[in-house]
Design goal:
The strands form three sheets. The protein has a six-stranded antiparallel β-sheet, with no helix packed on it. It has one helix spanning 96-99, and strands at 2-3, 12-15, 19-29, 37-44, 50-56, 60-63, 67-77, 80-85, 91-94, 111-117, 120-125, 129-137, 150-155, 160-164, 172-176, 182-185. A hairpin with a 7-residue loop joins β3 and β4 (37-44). It is mostly beta strands. The termini are far apart. The chain folds into three domains: 2-64, SH3 type barrels (Roll), CATH 2.30.30; 67-125, Beta Barrel (OB fold (Dihydrolipoamide Acetyltransferase, E2P)), CATH 2.40.50.140; 129-185, Beta Barrel (OB fold (Dihydrolipoamide Acetyltransferase, E2P)). Keywords: Cytoplasm, Elongation factor, Protein biosynthesis.
């Protein structure tokens, strides 16, 4: 148990009959008249749904114990993704629904964080940016460099993103794992 005064970004709360909600952002508000309150933005850990919720200051909230473990993506087994715990070397099979969009940026041997609650994997956290190789993109036409346009490119994971026209097949680029945006070339 904690109070709304103890809230931190990333903290996981157990609300509405045991549903898990992650604190995305919070703000303590002290109006000139009336009691103080805490305005929060919460994300449902399982569905990804984001809601705004207001609590009175000092209200007790039930916190969930979420274990964040450093793991490495090993391989895909059927539809499941297999991760290896970097401390115990135990393997954990995680279904595609839990992995979600993270699969677009996962390569074998990639380090990530797996959030686990009561032995159930909740979600996978990747670094903010990952380096991936362009598997295929149309060749750029001479003179395209100044227009600032983009073209589709297939990454080595099979995911497709928009890249600047001057990027070629085989180049290594940096991709934002939160938005899927091209961040730049990786110099070798």
């Amino acid at each position: 148990m904690a109070t709304t005064n103890d809230l931190k970004n990333g903290m996981v709360l157990k609300l509405d009959g045991g549903q898990l909600w992650s604190v995305v952002e919070f703000q303590h508000v002290k109006p000139g008249k009336g009691g103080a309150f805490v305005r929060t933005k919460l994300k449902n850990v399982l569905s990804g749904k984001v809601v705004d919720k207001t609590f009175n200051a000092g209200t007790k909230v039930d916190t969930a114990t979420v274990d964040r473990r450093g793991m490495q993506f090993s391989y895909k087994d059927g539809s499941d993704f297999v991760f290896m715990d970097m401390e115990t070397y135990d393997q954990l099979h995680i279904n595609p629904e839990t992995v979600g969009d993270t699969a677009n940026y996962l390569l074998e041997g990639q380090d990530c964080t797996v959030a686990i609650h009561e032995e159930n994997p909740l979600f996978i956290e990747l670094p903010a940016a990952v380096e991936l190789t362009i598997e295929y993109t149309e060749p750029g036409v001479q003179g395209d460099r100044s227009t600032g346009g983009t073209k589709p490119a297939r990454l080595e994971t099979g995911y497709e993103i928009g890249v600047p026209l001057f990027i070629t097949t085989g180049e290594k680029i940096k991709v934002d794992t939160r938005s899927g945006e091209y961040l730049g070339r990786v110099s070798s």
